[in-house]
Amino acid sequence: MSVTLDRMTKGAKGKVVSIAGGRGATLKLAAQGIAPGMLIEKVGHLRGGPILVKVGRSQVAIGKGLASKVVVRVIPE
Amino acid sequence: MKRILLVGNPNVGKSVIFSKLTGVNVCVSNYPGTTVEFCRGSSFVGKEEVEIIDVPGSYSLEPTSKAEEVAVEMLSEGDVIINVVDATNLERNLYLTTQLLERNIPLVIALNIWDETKHRGIEINVKRLSELLGVPVVPTNARSGYGLDRLMRSLRDARTPNLPPASVDERWRRIGEIIGEVQRIRHHHHTLLERFEDASIHPVGGYIVAVLIIGATFAVIRLIGESLIAYILDPIFNNVYMPFLLRIGEKLAGYSLLHDILIGKLVDGTIDFKESFGLLSTGVYVPIGMVLPYVIAFYFMLGLLEDIGYLPRLAVLLDGFMHRLGLHGYSIIPSLLGLGCNVPALLATRVLESKRERFIVATLISIAVPCAALQAMIVGLLAPFGMRYVALVYSILFLVWMGLGGIMRLFTRGFIPALLIEIPPYRAPYMKTLLMKFKGRALGFLSEAVPVVIIGVGVVNVFYALGILDQIAKFTSPLITRLLGLPREAVLAVIIGFLRKDIGVGMLAPLNMTVKQLVVGCATLAMFFPCIATFVVLFKELGFIHTARAIAIMIVTALLVGGLLNAVLWF
Ligand SMILES: Nc1nc2c(ncn2[C@@H]2O[C@H](COP(=O)(O)OP(=O)(O)O)[C@@H](O)[C@H]2O)c(=O)[nH]1
């Protein structure tokens, strides 16, 4: 099942499928490890604000708008 | 001389390595044509002297910010690269490494923060990593100095593997393969620190932690500032500087104009540092005796929060809220800086990506964020009547900050750039680099703000002596007396507020005003025209048209809010 990062449930893990954004957004996300093929885990969601994601050993906060451009295939538990 | 570049992601320990290798302890220099800061120093490899440059931290060589652009540009000027890598977060760090390896510069890798891998349950096969990447890899602990000698010796073996340029996906695939082969992670129990890391960004707990941390920070700032004044500065000013000034005053006895300009008026037969208003008395005392201690305390605490890794968390927590002001979470950092001095705060707005955002943040800072000097005056003036009046003025400024941000968001065009930041693990601060950054900032304040204050006081004194101030006062007094309900003499305070807000506010002191008048006066003056130093920087940052806009917004807001306060306050 594919969803955008902002719609993913908290605690779910998944593989990034694609980035539905421009070149700038794609490169910025890639530098933080959010690129097609990467395994990520959504660890939190602040009200009205950013989404917290674990990539490898680092934690990244992504604004809601940008998160809605990241398409993830959720790995069932 | 050979030039060695320290390159790496932000927060990997580059500054610590830099200070250990070079021994340099103040190092803020700007890259030509920009305000991106970097450090430069020298060291020895064997007997050969080399230049070492600490390149601004960067996640990738496809630059997405000014600092990263500078980092990329600097690469072409180096002979060897030391790529500093965080061993506790190898995967993400290797993205920059793979890009560096596609370039034609010899490279070695410092596998830093090596000491923390053990208790975080990470095992890295260093030898294999070095083989796979084709360059020397040296484990280091910058804080203790472990491995740094070996690192410098390994420079002889620096290589250029010349990887073919790859796409984003290919790079990450390669990194995945490398990580799979060299890194093993044992499961380990969460440490107390890791629990706190989670708590401080929790959707509920995070805000509680934030309130506690900010509250504690300001309490400590006050404590440090007040102690510096009581035990160091006041004794120096009263026991050493005062007799010196009085002697100069005697020498100037025959020249009353010069005496007025340099020493100012005597209060009860002696110099009053706050009220005499001479170039050498008030002009020196206010920036150094009253403001500097708080600026010092403020920068020290801010540096501490920065070094520990708290600030990104604050930015993330506040992102949702800041969106209502047309901003994203990161703009809280320049705004916080403004509570020390507006000048560095405005300079810090350069890290923000969009023009619109810079305009909103800069305007809000210069109107509604009171600097340390101003705050000291407001507290000094209102606290004797009760802390609730001080709280009232702070609340008014906060509401203006929020309201004005909301309005500006509606009336400016553009989008809010998306937030994307790494949340680093907490680290114990390292005093040496902390002091290094702190010294740079404090010296910056001394060299930028102090001369302007002295010039400001000088200009006012000359205007005053020539009677120009009286003319302006006559012209604008209806506005002040009718709209704001302040006494006629307050006009002078407003005008001097053009040069130094804090001194302007301070000048309200001898006017025998009611509490209500003081509250209105403090709030209005705080919002009014920025001090001249801020004004100059605002102009440099925003250009003529936007500065004019910011000033228009400022005047309208100050008069509107001041008039409103005068109308509605009931005490
Ligand atoms: N445990 C540990 N901490 C380190 C080491 N090197 C740096 N640090 C800490 O990591 C944080 C970031 O270091 P800094 O030099 O400011 O990073 P920079 O942004 O790369 O210049 C600071 O709190 C340092 O004290 C190390 O080898 N071991």
Describe this structure in a few short sentences.
The complex is a heterodimer of chains A (77) and B (571). With 77 residues, chain A is an alpha+beta fold.
What report would you give on this structure?
- The complex is a heterodimer of chains A (77) and B (571).
- Chain A is an alpha+beta fold.
- Chain A has helices at 23-31, 64-67; strands spanning 2-4, 13-19, 39-45, 51-55, 58-62, 70-75.
- Chain A is globular.
- The model of chain A has no long low-confidence stretch (mean pLDDT 91).
- Chain B has 571 residues and is an alpha/beta fold.
- Chain B folds into 2 domains: 2-185, Rossmann fold (3-Layer(aba) Sandwich); 205-568, no CATH class.
- Helix content of chain B is 61%, strand content 10%.
- Chain B is built from 24 helices and 12 strands.
- The termini of chain B are far apart.
- Chains A and B meet through α1 and β5 of A and α3, α7, α12, α13 and β12 of B.
- β5 of chain A pairs antiparallel with β12 (420-423) of chain B, so a sheet runs across the interface.
- Residues 8, 10-16, 57, 112-113, 115-116, 141-143, 307, 427, 429-430, 433 of chain B line the site of guanosine-5'-diphosphate (GDP).
Question: Can you lay out the helices and strands and say which pair or pack?
Answer:
The complex is a heterodimer of chains A (77) and B (571).
Chain A: E1 2-4, E2 13-19, H1 23-31, E3 39-45, E4 51-55, E5 58-62, H2 64-67, E6 70-75
Antiparallel strand pairs in A: 1-6, 2-3, 2-6, 3-4, 4-5
Chain B: E1 2-8, H1 14-22, E2 29-30, E3 37-45, E4 48-54, H2 66-75, E5 80-86, H3 90-101, E6 107-112, H4 115-119, E7 122-124, H5 126-133, E8 137-139, H6 148-154, H7 168-182, E9 183-185, H8 192-199, H9 205-251, H10 256-262, E10 266-267, E11 270-271, H11 282-308, H12 311-317, H13 319-323, H14 332-338, H15 342-348, H16 355-368, H17 372-382, H18 387-411, E12 420-423, H19 431-466, H20 468-484, H21 490-497, H22 501-506, H23 515-527, H24 532-568
Parallel strand pairs in B: 1-4, 1-5, 5-6, 6-8
Antiparallel strand pairs in B: 2-3, 3-4, 7-9, 10-11
Bound molecules: guanosine-5'-diphosphate.
